[in-house]
Amino acid sequence: MAHQFSVAVRNARAEAIESTIGTAPILRIRTGSPPANCAAARTGTILVSITLPNNWLTDASGGVKGGSVDWSATASATGDAGHFEIMDSSGTTCHWQGTVTDTSGSGDMKILGGVSIVTGQTVRVTQFQWTESNA
């Protein structure tokens, strides 16, 4: 039998992730595939960099963290989004990364309007959530 946790433990794990990353982290959307892990050298061109608000995700509920957000910034480069990274507020330590697709894809982050980003374009993320495992 696989390990199973209560909703309270799953919520606490989700909250710990946000508190460990800290306030005002930086979300970067980059071209190409993500590196092998967060400790690996960063890859791809940064298309947009968004400084997230201090309380950047909703409170965990039912083992789910995140949900409706409103994160936006102007793109600094042109290319196809392939992955994202969430860095600490100094932009030096990657704490979270995943793939990016349009809303019809299976990426960890979905971009409304497609993955093609053009310099000067406003890039807006309006939904971002994950579900803690081990229910």
Structure description:
The protein has one domain. About 10% of the residues lie in helices and about 40% in strands. It has one helix at about 5-20; strands spanning about 25-30, 45-50, 65-75, 80-85, 95-100, 110, 115, 120-130. Strands 1, 2, 4, 5, 6 and 7 form a 6-stranded mixed sheet that branches. A two-stranded antiparallel sheet has the order 3-8. The model has no long low-confidence stretch (mean pLDDT about 90).
* Proportion of beta-strand residues: 35-45%
Q: What is the count of distinct domains? A: 1
What is the average per-residue confidence, as pLDDT, rounded to a whole number?
92
- What pattern of helices and strands is seen along the backbone? HEEEEEEEE
Low-confidence stretches: none
The total beta strand count reads 8
What share of the residues lie within helices? 10-25%
For the report, how would you describe the main beta sheet?
Answer: 6 strands, mixed
In short:
This protein is mainly beta. It has one helix at residues 7-21; strands spanning 26-31, 46-51, 64-74, 79-87, 94-102, 109-111, 116-117, 122-131.
